[in-house]
Amino acid sequence: MKIVGLTGGISSGKSTVTRIFTSDAKTAPAVIDLDVIARQVVARGTPAYDKILRHFKDPEGGSLIEEATGEIDRKRLGALIFADPLQRKKLQAITHRPIFIEMAKQLLWHFIRGTDLVILDAPLLYEAGLHRLTSSVVVVYAPDDVQLKRLMKRDNIDEKEARQKIQAQMPLDKKRERADFVIDNSGDLKDTEQQAQSLLLLLRSQESLFATRALHV
User: Fold this and answer.
1) CB–CB of 98/40 below 8 Å?
2) Which of 152, 178, 187, 200 is buried deepest, with most CB atoms within 10 A?
3) Would you list the domain boundaries of the chain?
4) Does domain 2-29+116-202 have CATH number 3.40.50.300?
5) Dihedral sign, CA of 144, 146, 151, 156?
6) What is the mean pLDDT of each run of 10 residues along the chain (217 residues)?
7) What is the 3-state secondary structure (H, E, C) of the chain?
8) Pairing verdict, β 181-184 and 215-216
């Protein structure tokens, strides 16, 4: 089983590349999405849910729970952690173990069933040291100004808050330097699709095991 890490920066287009990778059922790799797992492990009724509500309080006195669903209000919680590195570390201490356990379960399941290619989709792949589990890493890249504009539009936030979110992650240029493959998502969707589809063919070939570091497709 080949495990390929997929990462990038916030709003660099990683989710778009994942959709392209999985758009054809005949060639689609298995995907373990750590964003999805991160939401699951803090769902209502989980130990992490209770710990988060005990350790985090909205400074404005509001509730961290969505009234309609009873789930944690991710936007409010995000506003707390992106503005404060110590708060981010506190949240990571609560969620790291359950996320890792669920990821390991999914990897084991794919190994047992004989899955040939697994994409480990993780925004904090390098930060969490998960790149050590992979045979190669794909970074989805976009220039700083493009990343900033996309994030402000996507989350309907101002430039200050957008920069806080971007700066909470490893700089995208550093991730690009460490990558085995880079998909440049600064252009139009068609260009990104061509890069992603070509790369998927390469990842499925034996040559991908011995690929030159920082190969751009």
Assistant:
1) no
2) 200
3) 2-29+116-202
4) yes
5) positive
6) 95 95 93 96 96 86 87 88 87 95 97 96 94 96 93 92 89 95 94 96 68 44
7) CEEEEEEECCCCCHHHHHHHHCCCCCCCCEEEEHHHHHHHCCCCCCHHHHHHHHHCCCCCCCCCECCCCCCECHHHHHHHHHCCHHHHHHHHHHHHHHHHHHHHHHHHHHHHHCCCEEEEECCCCCCCCHHHHCCEEEEEECCHHHHHHHHHHHHCCCHHHHHHHHHCCCCHHHHHHHCCEEEECCCCHHHHHHHHHHHHHHHCCHHHHHCCCCEEC
8) parallel
Looking at residue 206, what is its pLDDT?
A: 53
Single-letter code of the amino acid located at 33: D
Q: Is 140:14 a contact under the CB 8 Å cutoff?
A: yes
Write the single-letter amino acid at 140: V
Residue 150 structure tokens: 């996309």
**Six token digits for residue 57:** 């309080």
